[in-house]
UniProtKB/TrEMBL annotation:
<comment type="function">
    <text>Necessary for protein synthesis in mitochondria. Functions as a ribosome recycling factor in mitochondria.</text>
</comment>
<dbReference type="Pfam" id="PF01765">
    <property type="entry name" value="RRF"/>
</dbReference>
<comment type="similarity">
    <text>Belongs to the RRF family.</text>
</comment>
<dbReference type="InterPro" id="IPR023584">
    <property type="entry name" value="Ribosome_recyc_fac_dom"/>
</dbReference>
<dbReference type="GO" id="GO:0043023">
    <property type="term" value="F:ribosomal large subunit binding"/>
</dbReference>
<feature type="domain" description="Ribosome recycling factor">
    <location>
        <begin position="78"/>
        <end position="242"/>
    </location>
</feature>
<dbReference type="GO" id="GO:0005739">
    <property type="term" value="C:mitochondrion"/>
</dbReference>
<dbReference type="InterPro" id="IPR036191">
    <property type="entry name" value="RRF_sf"/>
</dbReference>
<keyword id="KW-0648">Protein biosynthesis</keyword>
<protein>
    <recommendedName>
        <fullName>Ribosome-recycling factor, mitochondrial</fullName>
    </recommendedName>
</protein>
<dbReference type="InterPro" id="IPR002661">
    <property type="entry name" value="Ribosome_recyc_fac"/>
</dbReference>
<dbReference type="GO" id="GO:0006412">
    <property type="term" value="P:translation"/>
</dbReference>
<keyword id="KW-0175">Coiled coil</keyword>
<feature type="coiled-coil region">
    <location>
        <begin position="202"/>
        <end position="236"/>
    </location>
</feature>
Length: 243
């Protein structure tokens, strides 16, 4: 391994023989120890100063962290698209509702499951909350009507209307909005936010350093790859919705 160094605020570069893994390193100066003076003489400890005066940073950690954040965004994006593309045929369709005068969370008073391909089954935990759950679903304007099951006062059957061309187009419009949110919004789960945070930390180092610039370029490359991955997820979801 060959090391070259210039003193001050320049970078310390570490190169390896051809064929080996390339990793960028960056060195920053820290406080130099002053020579101890005693009896008008100065002790020469330049070697100790050199060792203590350079702090080496492995820049690959920035690329790794960016990749991990981008991957998390893609996972969340894919999950959200999966929930939306199924439309009302989704057991979590009522989870955001508030029920009754106390505005209780729907998930605190009932649970939803698929009864069949074209219907949902809502099970209310306490029979006294059944009417409030029915009212909450009707008030949500989801075009869904819960019907009590005669044999069980705690269960409601909800028939799902067949999707129309217009409803499919509307779903695709919502999918595109979600894609933009995860791609380029100020949300902490977006690719843009993750990229911005990594670059902000990286740019605190010497911008004139070749090693830092190579790392910046690598992060931009990885960001572009994950943007394409998000676009592929959107295309697959739209294809599924439109049939």
């Amino acid at each position: 391994m060959i090391r070259t160094r210039t003193i001050g605020y320049q970078a310390l570069y570490i190169s390896r023989p051809r064929g080996s893994e390339l990793r960028n390193f960056y060195a920053t100066p820290i406080a130099w120890k002053k020579n101890a003076k005693k009896g008008g003489k100065t002790k020469d400890n330049s070697k100790s100063q050199e060792q203590d005066g350079i702090e080496t940073v492995d820049l690959s950690q920035y690329v790794q962290k960016a990749s991990e954040l981008f991957e998390r965004t893609c996972e969340l994006h894919k999950k959200r698209l999966g929930e939306l593309k199924s439309g009302n045929a989704n057991p979590s369709v009522f989870d955001h509702l508030k029920i009754g005068k106390s505005n209780a969370k729907f998930t605190d008073v009932a649970t939803t499951s698929m009864k069949s391909r074209n219907s949902l089954l809502v099970t209310v935990f306490d029979p006294k909350d059944t009417k409030a759950v029915i009212s909450g679903i009707l008030a949500a304007n989801l075009n869904l009507t819960p019907e009590p099951i005669p044999q069980n006062e705690q269960q409601l059957k909800v028939m799902l209307p067949a999707p129309t061309l217009e409803s499919r187009k509307q779903t695709c419009k919502i999918l595109k909005a979600v894609f933009e949110e995860y791609k380029n919004s100020a949300s902490k789960t977006s690719l843009a936010h993750a990229r911005g945070e990594i670059l902000k930390d990286l740019k605190k180092l010497d911008r004139k350093s070749d090693a830092v610039n190579r790392t910046l370029q690598e992060i931009e490359k990885v960001h572009k790859q994950y943007t394409s991955k998000l676009q592929d997820q959107l295309k697959q979801a739209e294809k599924s919705v439109m049939g």
